[in-house]
What we know:
The protein is an alpha/beta fold and about 475 residues long. The chain folds into 2 domains: about 1-150 and about 160-230, no CATH class; about 290-480, no CATH class. It has helices spanning about 5-10, 20, 35-40, 75-80, 80-90, 100-110, 115-125, 130-135, 175-180, 185-190, 195-200, 200-205, 210-215, 215-225, 240-255, 275-280, 295-300, 305-320, 340-350, 385-405, 420-425, 430-440, 450-460, 465-470, and strands at about 25, 30-35, 150, 230-235, 260-265, 285-290, 325-335, 370. The structure holds iron/sulfur cluster. The site of iron/sulfur cluster (SF4) has 14 residues, from α2, α3, α6 and α7.
Amino acid sequence: MYTKKELDEQFPTETFCALPWMHLSTRPNGHMRVCCTANASGVAVNAESTNKTKSDAGILKRDDGKPANLATTGLLESWNNEYMKGVRRQMLAGEKPASCIKCFKEEEAGHRSKRQWETRKWIQDAGGIDEIIRGTQEDGTVDPRIRYIDLRLGSKCQLACVMCSPHDSSGWVKEHKQIHPHLVNPKLKQTMQWEKETGKLAWTGGSYNWHKKSPTFWDELYSQLPHLRQLYWAGGESLIMDEHYTLLEKIIEDGLAKDIELRYNSNGLEWREDLFDLWKEFRNVIFHFSIDDIEQRNHFIRYPSPWPEVVEQIKKLDNYPHGNLELTTAWTCIALNIYYLPEFIKWKVQEGFKLLNRWPSGAGLFSCHLAYWPPQLNVKVLPEWFKKDVRQKCEDELFPWLEKNWKDCTGVTERQVSYDTWRQSEYGIPRMQGLLNFMDADDWSTRLPETAEWCYTVADKRFIDFNETFPDYDWLEWYK
Ligand code: SF4
């Protein structure tokens, strides 16, 4: 094991990242990306945006400038195309590739970037930097040795979450067609456009069935399995995809599972009966369970998610018998659930889970991330007076409650964690304070008419009474 200092000393330059040497990331439409964060380098989300990306930064380009899409372009052919070679050359020369701006901006702001933690992780895992960059030619060409794959096999998903869209979920397609033509607010209408209807998907050669169309993808992927160390499933909903199970079985048959970590972002609502039998063969499994609130509010946000089923599924995972599972929540912070964070955290602590965010994971509480998109549901959209209420509810109610009940956080007592260690964990109260600070950092409340139109339209379409489900948000009606 290298120390942190020894790992940092192995970075060949100050702009080096290991991922372009060992990682493949796909979008549900088959576009290849340098990594998921590289794709977000083109994200232009601010109080005015109606397009998520101002550029396709981070999407691998073919030599004719169009996106390299796995439906039409070979995986290994793209591995050493001009775009990828250019990124590697720039990194080895200490330059900052345009595709990676998001990481460098985060570092300038004093945060630890994906570039930094991923590179440390993979140097450690490979047993040294030489194993990652060996054989790199002067022009940036390197033999493919793919250790880490973020695989999104289309958009098949049974849910239509309120912050999602048909770009990422087939569950949205039918409702999108019914709702979108009737949206009135021009900004909202533009924000919620679908690439299949604007013609962008066809122009770029993308397809939500790219994995069924590609003649070479599966053979090329299988040839890389001996190098693979992490297989990440993050979209649509992998547990209802036949290909997910076929790939796991193939890895097991080839005797490679013990070297591979599986990772999921999943709604966890259904899976094949033998899932746990497959998982037990792997080195380990990390499962991020998508859950954003409790009871009817979660059902509205992650529609349709009947609450008793959600709880039943989490408990099945929480009782996983084979010992190689790390289970966390994936709580997406949006305008509709931040007010109810205290209720969610109390539920999590009082349910007595054994595995779900067991210390040190999420400080024994939860794991979360911010939804920047769509803008009408970004927490920054809330009016100032309501943001004050949100903060007060956390500071006056939730944090004191946690100070009193900290020993009940999952795994804290069992692992004999001291109060100071628990209190100082950056994933506990400080993380929640970070969410509040993000919310307060900008005022996007001019977009509240979009929030109101979106929430009431979606609720009406689903025969849900919005004001009854979110009684503390009934003031949204003023903006209709
Ligand atoms: S530097 Fe950042 S954006 Fe670029 S490949 Fe690495 S992790 Fe991805």
